[in-house]
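To fix ideas, we now present one chain and its tokenised fold:
***
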Amino acid sequence: MNAERLLQHYEKIADAPEAIARLRRFVLDLAVRGKLVPQDAKDEPASELLTRIEKAKARLVKAGELRKPRDLDSGGDVNKAYSIPSTWRWVRLDGVGAIVGGGTPSASDAYNFAEPGEGVPWLTPADLGGYSKLYISRGSRDLSETGARTSSATLMPKGTVLFTSRAPIGYVAIAANPISTNQGFKSIVPYVADCSRFIATAMKAFAPEIDAKAPGTTFKEVSGKVVAAVPFPLPPLAEQHRIVAKVDELMDLCERLETARAGREAVRDRLAAANLARFNAPDPETFRNDARFALDALPALTTRPDQIKDLRRTILNLAVRGKLVPQDPNDEPGSELLKLIATEIATYGEANCIGTVQTDLIADEKLPFAAPTGWEWTRLSTLFKVITDGDHQPPPKADTGVAFLTIGNITSGRLDFTGCRLVPEAYFKSLAPYRTPAKSDILYTVVGATYGRPALVETERPFCVQRHIAILKPVEAMSVRFLMTLLASPLIYDQATNSITGTAQPTIGLRPLRNFLAPLPPLAEQHRIVAKVGALMALCDRLEASLTATVATRRRLLDALLAEALAPADASLSGVSDRQTVATVSGDPEKVIFAERSAYILSLAYERHRFARRERTFGHVKAQKILHLVEAEAGFDLGRAPIRDAAGPNDFKHMLAVEQWARGHERFVFETNGAGYLLRQLSNFDKSLKTEHGPDPHTRAIATRLIDILVPMDTRQAEIFATVYSAWNNLLIEGKAPTDTEIVCAARDDWHPDKLKLPAGEFFAALAKLRLEGIVPKGTGKFVHGPYQKALFN
């Protein structure tokens, strides 16, 4: 059965995006296709079950309880959507059960209703909202005898499959006892009672398709005619029971997987919160060690984008509190910087006829925190030459002219001119200079749900802005990047939130904005803070990229498994994709994805070497080192489990699997030249760089840069370079702050006996090269175990 491998990997793919919901839907899909359990030749075929159904319907017609039905097995108007086992039959849904609607008595007459248990059981779709059990006995209220008699509600027997046809479409349950419904149901009363469980399973599978056929948008409802005509795959009764049992088993497993995942997420959330608390409420005595521990733990605890967002906020919070970098007593203090700023603002005001802005005095007891040594508290207005906004009058429109930006043109701290309005150039020239943004100014949104977002002007293109955007012109004595950090920090955002007026449209006035409290560090420290924030934000970017890659891998694995499970059991290999073919051969679709990714990186590396006429240096050793560095630095998961080998960080099994896949798909081979192995292209080499599993543009750029650094190196240099990087990363993962000597010792003395044959000076040179190229591990790469350690961990 094609679904077997999916079921084997059930727990492995549980963390893919919406995996549990997709698995539930897929189990139902397999159930109605005859792919969930094997067929048994001893089962009474569905044709015999149809004969029983015919007899049951004939009895109902004779008793006057049912109109004369259509021929069940004619199938003339049944849309046979897919192939089913030979022992099954396609029929219409009304061929296996009567379709029954419902009714509601006058709601204005209280005597039409009764308390639950005191009248006739009656359901509305709302009674099934959030209801997780399969069987239901009654709703939130019953019908009285009068209400049941005066409405079109029909009392249906135990075992009726209840299906909501509106508000919303698709809730499914089974009547635990005789029950009636309102008109929001098109229920199925099975002609053979033993079929009710399979019918309920099938209706859950068909619900999305039935919903899609319903007319309307705001209020959708499906008619009894549409429900009656739903094509229904009817299995033998014995197989129905096996299918239902397997569905119950797998749905229970889904429930347990969901509970386990929720538990894991809750634990990670608590640990992540505790980890960030080390930053947000730091102990001055232990902050450095706490910070290193917290950073080392981040990759293991960060599994969702919102956690990375919290980390970014924490970094900004530390930056403006003076906790991110150490203070230097030799720095010129903030008090001196304030004098320079005051002079610059006065000069600008005189030149532009701008009066002095009055700000409130600062009361010590209202300060958010004690300023570090050399820092000063001030108001935001004292850090900018002017804080103003756009023209308050609606600007004239024009087909040509100068760009006019609104809040919608500010996204993720950047300006986006796409689709912006234009205003006449004459209007633009009429604006005061301080109302027109210039390069290095900062824009700040002050109106609407997206208030409090700064954006740095990095273009020399002339433009103007609407009044919902504040224009902040920094003084030259300040670091503009530090001011961006300050404006993006929780310290300023919280003040913005507290100053808001209006409810329908939140607004930050210019006067409150100018009065925001702002900490002022020495200029030299501002530059150090900006550098540290940049490095940490780069780490966040890498975590985000790694998380995205992991999510994509799990999604693709799930997609591959689902595609394989749905493929015909006798499908020839020539009729399926590369991924499906190898999945069938190798038995592990996840490894196929990793093989395709790795083949992409190796093909890219070969191309870069060939471009530089260095392809004869690109053999097994270099290939493994490139794979290791790309996986670690770019966060591009290749599925490797590296060990400490004489030639550096290697994963032989992974490399062998990649080579087998590449050879099998005519991409490339590594062939011996007597002294080693070199890559040789095969007929489909170009396809390696066109795979859907390749990196995104940002990750590819990082990978290309890493490859280009290794291109000029010979095998020995590349081996030492990657080994030093890996040893350094290992030490960081272990929570150490290693010296250069300790890094070299870990890469040479403690790595492998063969490394002692190489001069220590070459390892120090590799360390210097890493720093020169900005390739500094953060402890986020994979730990490279010794051969025996790896065996223990596996």
In short: Residues 71-76, 568-586, 788-794 have pLDDT under 50 and may be disordered. The chain has three domains: 44-235, 334-521, 572-793. The two ends are 29 Å apart (CA to CA). Residues 237-280 form the longest helix (44 residues).
